[in-house]
## 1
Amino acid sequence: MKRHESLVPLSRDHHFGLIMAQQLILGRATNPRADWPTDRAQQVPRLVKFFESDLRPHFDVEEAHVFPAASRSVAAGDRQVQALLADHDAMRAMICALEADPESGLDERLPAFGHLLKAHIHKEEHVLFQQMQAACAPEELEALGVRVAAAHDTAGPTCKVYL
């Protein structure tokens, strides 16, 4: 299903999130020209910076605008939103734990973050966004798009260089 333009900025963010997830899962970049370290300890600050510059603002936009619209319009939307919010909280907690202890268990912790991020993005893209496109009235999607674009623009420049 083609993505409605109101959700395109978030889908673009998801693309970069999937790149990060894959690098964390594999422990290396799939693009040979990527500047992604293979040393797990060097990946931690890159992930933390990506979280602060990209994921945290992305989560804020979803929580303020997308999730309320989904709760109102999608069948069982409240249940889906609660699961997605739990993912956000789990990723925030994982980043806090990495900041508190950036050295131990990285061969398990970093791929675990990658797997959670990848699964989370797939739930949004392949379930929630498609259901929203089917359930929301066109004018509701247009209004959501205006709010998402404004919030996305005020979040400031993103730092894709951390990928």
## 2
Amino acid sequence: MGYQLSRKTADEIFGRLKQDYDIFAPKLYPGEGCFSDTDVIRYGKVGSLDEIEWSKRSDYSFKEALLAVNEVLFYFTEKETRVPSCTDKKLLIFLRSCDLHAVKRLDAIYLNNGPEDFYYKRLREKARFVLMGCSETCGTGFCVSMGTNRTEEYDLYLKPEGELYRADCRLEELQRYFLTEEVSVCEAVPDYVRENKEKVTFPEKLSTETFSNPLWAEYGSRCIGCGRCNSVCPTCTCFTMQDITYRDNENAGERRRVWASCQVDGYTDIAGGNSFRKTQGEKMRFKVMHKIYDFEKRFGYPMCVGCGRCDEVCPEYISYVNIINRLAKEEG
């Protein structure tokens, strides 16, 4: 159901939502970028509509609202283990269409790829999603090519229009917040991107022979293995484990799940000093082929959603878009 409401009414509704939900949205962090005197847009808990960054794509994805960068799985002592409690509140996450499509990819890995992940599932069941429309394309995004530029799977759509807001509420759970005399019924259709500057042609005949293509060594020679592409990607799911023991008792501590990157040295090291992927070219090949070949063979759709963050963040200006287009040209 579509609504039109004033800024004052929107603030009042937001205040009521805060009582029942932890609200996460992209917000500007001045001076906290990777380089001196630079800003960064990333996800955090917001207390008002003014904190939300509406006009620019976030540098980091919504993923850290569902998957903490550093998450305690359990505490242990000599005699017992204890799983940390989960938040009592539900989650309300503001995100764009490409990122909402990424939720489907995370669900596939954590819920439909073997036994369900307990920690992801308990937060995922609490999550509700607010779609933020895109009136124009971002610089490196290619969501139109991926078919992720629009979605109907949102729970709430919210759009600021000067001193007014338009909303489309599809979840009965949220509709009660809009049932006030100050809200009028109107049409609210989400904005979506119709054309990107970047366009991708997906290769249709990839096979295991693609693994020997010389382009992997070419791009691998430029990659420094920093893992920034994985950190900003909304669909990367790799992690490592850390056991932390306390100084006052070495038999007590906590086990943590921490984001990891398939591009960094040591990620595929195993006992005996062996490693599955040693060169940067092999690591690059694994990442790309997993996004566009392995995942699709398993689930029926590509892992990549075309957000373009990886191209934006790479310090060596390696273009994922160019890699895919070259594969399409060379491999068919």
## 3
Amino acid sequence: MSLTVRLKNIGILKQAEFSLGDLTIICGENNTGKTYAACALYGFLSSWRNFLRFPISNAHIQQARTELVKIDLAQATDDMLTEACKKYTEQLHKIFAAPEGTFQDSEFHFETDEIDIEHKKFNSILTSLQNPAFIFSKSEGSKEAILAARTEKEQEREIDIDSVKSAIDFIIIEDIFSGSFPRPFIASAERTGISTFRKELNFARSRLLDEMWHANRKIDLWELRYPFPIRDDAEFIGRFEDSAKIKSFIAKEHPEILEDFADIVGGKYVITQNDQLYYVPKDTRHKLTMVESSSSVRSLLDISFYLRHEAEKGDLLMIDEPELSLHPENQRRITRLFARLANLGVKVFITTHSDYIVKELNTLIMLNHDKPHLKRVAEENGYQDSELISVDQVKVYIAEKALLPLEEGQKRRRRGHTLVPAKIHPELGIGVSSFDKTIDDMNRIQDDIVWGEE
């Protein structure tokens, strides 16, 4: 699978491009655009169905009443995705809960090679009380779709072209595009606060909307919105009681992952019969509310529920700063868990400031070679084969200010915030200069403190 995103003038990012691997990391200093990239991607993956429209003309639908109309799906789907990206870009202010016009100079492009047209097939009858019946079909092995009136008798009936277009849109989206994009789940950087006040947030929002209704106030509801990642994270945390009734494929097939995650959490989350959420520390029966629990317990709450109740193969698990409130050892352990998820078919996308996460990922890459001493090192340090990951599964980008590619009409390259691909060596791992420089500076200063008198 190849999924590539290109951004222009989105937040602080002037120009950027990144591709998704099985495990994707965007790292860098504060205020360099990491969250903008993550939010733009999440917004598209969570709303693409709203922007796809099949490019069939009114004339073609009228023509189909009397003869077969052949449609090149390869070209049509490319055009659909291009147009969907344009429409999505126009809605970026809603995705980010920003004032209208904030992203008027922005561009968002999404490319994928996962739209498998040739092997898809469908044979649908488009009918309603108002319309003549059409047959819209495609055979396996073909890249063309056929649109035609079902019978000659129906050729003279009046036609509601918009309803025909809507039916075609639905078929194309479900039969061609469905499965071409990963289903996203996001744990936002605000998850610690959301988990603390999840009930209060729901109550406060409902009360505000209720008061507005009774007061008959006219207000744009977008003024009450959060950015999509925060909104969806809050909604997920607010409906734990419902999701807790479902078991994910991880809970069914890989319960050992949940056991390891519970060990990182240091206990388990429990929902009582009265729909109350508690945290129970390991080896105790003492129940703590989220307010009483540690920040690490709150930061891992939605990830735990996702793994236990929501995860599906093919998903994209997105986490903004997974290191929130975690001890360095647990940062290492959760990195190993990410690699296991990636190897099971759940893609992982994170933004991070953590050198521990990057260094641990280095270890997993470096150990993934068939050499006797590496097997010994892995065994002595408790690494499992399921945690090792190959270099071609990993994508790492550094958010920083750098020279941008030349644009049309420019004579000199400009500097701006972008995403620079990190070099990943199969035996030496990932090079992230910003982390290395900081650590080198700290070591130099401490050396001066200890040895400076000599």
